[in-house]
Specification:
- The chain has six helices and 15 strands.
- The radius of gyration is 20 Å and the shape is globular.
- The chain is of the alpha+beta class and 269 residues long.
- The chain folds into two domains: 167 residues, 2-Layer Sandwich (D-amino Acid Aminotransferase, Chain A, domain 1); 77 residues, Beta Barrel (OB fold (Dihydrolipoamide Acetyltransferase, E2P)), CATH 2.40.50.
- Strand 9 and strand 10 form a beta hairpin.
- The strands form three sheets. It has a five-stranded mixed sheet with strand order 1-10-9-2-8, with helices on one face. Strands 4-3-5-6-7 form a five-stranded mixed sheet. A five-stranded antiparallel sheet has the order 13-12-11-14-15.
- The N terminus is likely disordered.
């Protein structure tokens, strides 16, 4: 009984530690005076002061040289290389045995959990440590002041023109908070979501003998078939049942199903 109690406490502590910030979707909220930054398409990584963890709390097997001289305080950010490189980033970061390609990875910081002060002050606190300890592979994601919606739209178009994914906007006056909040918003032309693979539909016509579509389930229990965005190679060897896939979409039907959903990738983190 005592052992079970101790394990339960440890799991509870870990769960609380990984209640990370989550963004809502930008519609037409007033964001004047907020800050905006490019949304990087990498692997989210939480540094708890001792260990590097995925957003789901799994250990990331980074080389000791990567986390050497990391701070004793928490960091939240993306493990990243460059735009449009997600699959490679994922293969490097989630490999059980860290390889030489880790030298390409940068830790791009967008939050300093539980640090004192507003958002800007928290980032300055982290930057001072990074500079002092000469952590060249750790950077603070550049934040730009946003004066108006047209300025946000212009920045979004600029990011997209360079092959970026989207923009994050945040109320920089706030102290640190956990969970989903309207004080941090995601701005994209198309939105993305994740779903669990629960079945398949056989292909027909030119896809005969291959997977036609995946039957997937959203976190809220809504199920639908995801049939576009796959290469022939992916149709011949589709994601396994139980795996998590990311797809893009353009809003929802009245039944809660994503509109014009298109497969993007399998998520391993």
């Amino acid at each position: 009984m005592f052992k079970l109690f101790v394990v339960s406490i440890l799991l509870l502590v870990n769960s609380e530690a990984l209640t990370l910030q989550k963004a809502n979707i930008y519609t037409d909220q007033n964001i004047s005076g907020w800050v905006m930054s490019e949304k990087l398409d990498g692997i989210r990584a939480f540094w708890d002061g001792k260990n590097l963890l995925t957003r789901k709390g799994k250990s990331i097997n980074a080389p000791k040289s990567f986390t050497q001289n990391f701070p004793p305080f928490e960091l939240d950010g993306e493990l990243w290389t460059k735009r449009g490189d997600f699959e490679k980033i994922q293969s490097i970061v989630l490999d059980e045995v860290p390889g030489v390609n880790w030298r390409e990875i940068k830790y791009m910081i967008f939050e300093v959990p539980h640090a004192k002060g507003n958002f800007t002050e928290r980032l300055v606190f982290a930057k001072n440590y990074i500079d002092e300890h000469k952590l060249g592979h750790v950077e603070i994601i550049e934040q730009k002041h946003c004066k108006s919606q047209p300025e946000l739209n212009s920045f979004l178009e600029s990011v997209l023109s360079y092959g970026g994914e989207g923009v994050m906007i945040k109320d920089a006056s706030k102290g640190y908070f956990q969970g989903r909040s309207s004080s941090i918003l995601k701005v994209k032309k198309a939105q993305d979501m994740e779903a669990k693979v629960i079945g398949y539909k056989n292909g027909s016509g030119k896809f005969t003998g291959m997977m036609g579509s995946l039957q997937v389930e959203l976190e809220n229990g809504v199920q639908f078939f995801l049939g576009s965005g796959f290469s022939d190679k992916q149709r011949k060897s589709p994601p396994a049942i139980g795996e998590t896939v990311t797809f893009k979409h353009y809003g929802f039907t009245k039944y809660g199903k994503p509109k014009f959903a298109s497969f993007m990738r399998v998520r391993k983190d």
